């Protein structure tokens, strides 16, 4: 597996993205974005005016709830860190199932944080909401190293974010092309519209290929550049239409998801932009390192991932892979050894790392609680199809 991670550096609200390059630093790939005078800000709608939070609103259905609770194996009096509160489904179930545990609920999304604050009123101090990214958790100093017994990390985008059209995550609901998980916490953070309207064709293609594993990245990025020359792309369904327009009509839903249902051709494009805008791969790595620091020896970590890029990173981290090793091949290539390698084929054995074609034994801070991954059963997939791509990995902190 290749340790290929992009990062979008800060973009001034008065700036434009005019060129991009690759460089390595401390074992990571960064897509550096330089600025020079942007005027798309007027096209965006603020996410600050979101629907009011109601404590009684239905929480999202948590993925693999029974499997997660089994892996966490929570004991009386323990401290649980839910690193991705989201809609609060896992946290609420933990609090209702275990009457004397404390849950620290982290989320980078101010809307989720507000929901956690409302929910906390029902649990008499047993739920402590935290606002921040994974990379900010240690710096907050609200959670001491070695003080946590159990960590749950549910990666990716929450159902709550996907269901709110004005957040700009969903291609099936028209809204401003935003995709920022932090909302307006960091006003200078580029929106997805900034990316698609300002990056050059080559850089856009690299993002789509690296983060969406989109084999038609060049064709799609060319269509985006052509469309934006006529009118800036500022809406989700506008972008979806541009992507769809680069394919024959018969191909629009020719792709299938893991349940063999038709999947829109823009799905991977939306995934790639979301991951890039929110720096999700670097944040996931930071979250795993934070869990390693905060968990006591013998503490448990359970990680839910929803696409292969996340799962490969988690597998490598838990098996003791050298996360600082950078494969210098082109960022458009798949995050695997060898072109065309499929899921489950030719993967490294746990506890081994492939460098320059040789297997090198590594030391891990983790002991696996299960062999391989756990995936949703048929019954859950029928009831909660959004969990179709979920994979659960669990390990003990050594």
UniProtKB/TrEMBL annotation:
The keyword S-adenosyl-L-methionine applies. GO terms for molecular function: rRNA (cytosine-N4-)-methyltransferase activity. Residues 377-386 have a biased composition (Basic and acidic residues). GO terms for biological process: rRNA base methylation. Residues 388-398 have a biased composition (Basic residues). Residues 344-353 have a biased composition (Acidic residues). It is found in: Mitochondrion matrix. Residues 324-398 are annotated as: Disordered. It catalyses: cytidine(839) in 12S rRNA + S-adenosyl-L-methionine = N(4)-methylcytidine(839) in 12S rRNA + S-adenosyl-L-homocysteine + H(+). N4-methylcytidine (m4C) methyltransferase responsible for the methylation of position C839 in mitochondrial 12S rRNA. Involved in the stabilization of 12S rRNA folding, therefore facilitating the assembly of the mitochondrial small ribosomal subunits. Belongs to the methyltransferase superfamily. RsmH family. This is 12S rRNA N(4)-cytidine methyltransferase METTL15. It comes from Gadus morhua.
């Amino acid at each position: 597996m290749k340790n290929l991670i992009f990062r979008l550096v800060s973009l001034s609200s008065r700036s434009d993205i005019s060129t991009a390059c690759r460089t390595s630093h401390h074992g990571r790939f960064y897509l550096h974005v330089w600025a020079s005078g942007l005027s798309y800000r007027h096209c965006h709608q603020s996410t600050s005016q979101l629907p009011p939070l109601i404590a009684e609103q239905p929480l999202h259905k948590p993925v693999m709830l029974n499997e997660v609770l089994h892996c966490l194996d929570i004991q009386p009096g323990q401290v649980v860190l839910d690193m991705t509160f989201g809609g609060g489904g896992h946290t609420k179930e933990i609090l209702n199932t275990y009457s004397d545990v404390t849950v620290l609920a982290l989320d980078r999304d101010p809307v989720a944080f507000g929901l956690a604050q409302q929910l906390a009123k029902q649990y008499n101090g047993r739920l402590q909401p935290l606002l921040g990214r994974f990379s900010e958790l240690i710096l907050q100093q609200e959670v001491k190293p070695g003080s946590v017994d159990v960590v749950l990390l549910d990666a990716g985008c929450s159902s709550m974010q996907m269901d709110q059209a004005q957040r700009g995550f969903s291609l099936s609901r028209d809204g401003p092309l935003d995709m920022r998980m932090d909302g307006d916490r960091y006003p200078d953070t580029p929106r997805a519209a900034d990316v698609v309207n300002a990056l050059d064709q080559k850089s856009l293609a690299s993002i789509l290929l690296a983060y969406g594993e989109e084999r038609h990245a060049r064709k799609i990025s060319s269509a985006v550049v052509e469309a934006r020359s006529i009118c800036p792309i500022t809406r989700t369904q506008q972008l979806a239409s541009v992507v769809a327009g680069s394919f024959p009509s018969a191909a629009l839903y020719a792709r299938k998801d893991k349940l063999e249902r038709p999947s829109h051709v823009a799905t991977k494009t939306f995934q790639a932009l979301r991951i890039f805008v929110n720096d999700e791969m670097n944040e996931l790595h930071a979250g795993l390192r934070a869990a390693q620091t905060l968990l006591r020896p013998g503490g448990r970590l359970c990680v839910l991932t929803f696409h292969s890029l996340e799962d490969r990173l988690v597998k490598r981290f838990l098996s003791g892979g050298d996360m600082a090793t950078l494969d210098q091949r082109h960022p458009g290539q798949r995050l695997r050894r060898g072109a065309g390698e499929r899921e489950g084929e030719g993967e490294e054995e746990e506890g081994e790392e492939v460098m320059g074609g040789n297997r090198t034994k590594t030391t891990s801070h983790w002991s696996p609680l299960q062999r391989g991954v756990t995936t949703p059963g048929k019954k859950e997939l029928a009831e909660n199809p959004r969990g179709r791509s979920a994979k659960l990995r669990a390990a003990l902190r050594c």
